[in-house]
Amino acid sequence: MSRRVLPYRIPPEDVVAAEDWHLVVEDGELPLPEALPDWDYGMDLHMIREVRVDLDGARSRSGLPADAPLMLSAVWTATGSRLSGPARQVRLTDSGVVSVPLDVRLRGADLGGVVRLDTALLLADRLDSARPAAPRRAGSVLWSDRASVRLQGDAPQYPMAVIDFARTSFPEGAAWHLQITGTLESATMGSLLLLVNERNTVTTTAFRNAAKPRPVDRVVLSAVYADVARVMIEHGLNRDDFVDEGDFPEGTLGSTLLGLFDRLFPEQSITDVRLRRLQAPALFASDLQAAVRIFEVAS
After folding, report:
1. What's the pTM value of the predicted model, to 2 decimals?
2. Do 274 and 173 share a structural domain?
């Protein structure tokens, strides 16, 4: 296994003892899983961990002065939205062993894809005078680790809003509606919006429990995802510029629809699926139902 060699001394890894990240849910907390297949953009992430740092050991083993200011920093990155930012920063100027709780809350609307959480022990300020080979620059990394959670599996993802359909032009009895606007060149995040009827408590409850769904919630979410996939695929098939040779920039609606099509209909051409939908719409509907694995229980 390769190891990155830094141009300055760093302490041994045992100067930091970091607990695993935990996901805070409605009825408690659980170890951060590898994936949250039922996540959607309306679900924020609340994660916690505790990190113990031997400040004296970290400084002395790095060649730093005994009073060198350190910082424990947590930074998040979401591959789906291409956004990132600081989650928590704690300046450490004490001595001895300190215990630092990290409490991170991330807005679901900012996330997507894989969320990475990088925690690092840093030199907080620049040192004008330091020992040879000791870190000098502010931000020099003395220790770090990374955790990640996959938010998007095969199900399409989209921003979501809960509204009262009785105050809109949508049917009052409908449970949800996927709104698609713009062209295939438009950004996906600005083109898709899942609207959920707040009067349909079964559906709103299922999304609220998405991090830890009950059996009934899984059934509802599966139905929603299947219907959303159908609407998205049909939207693409209705457009003349949605073709196999389409080359849409990453992050656009066209790229998202092509990616969804390739997952649901591997080794099939858009032309063939478009013709099947026109000539045998009932068969197309069954094919799509099988492709999204509706009501399938994840193993």
Report:
1. 0.57
2. yes
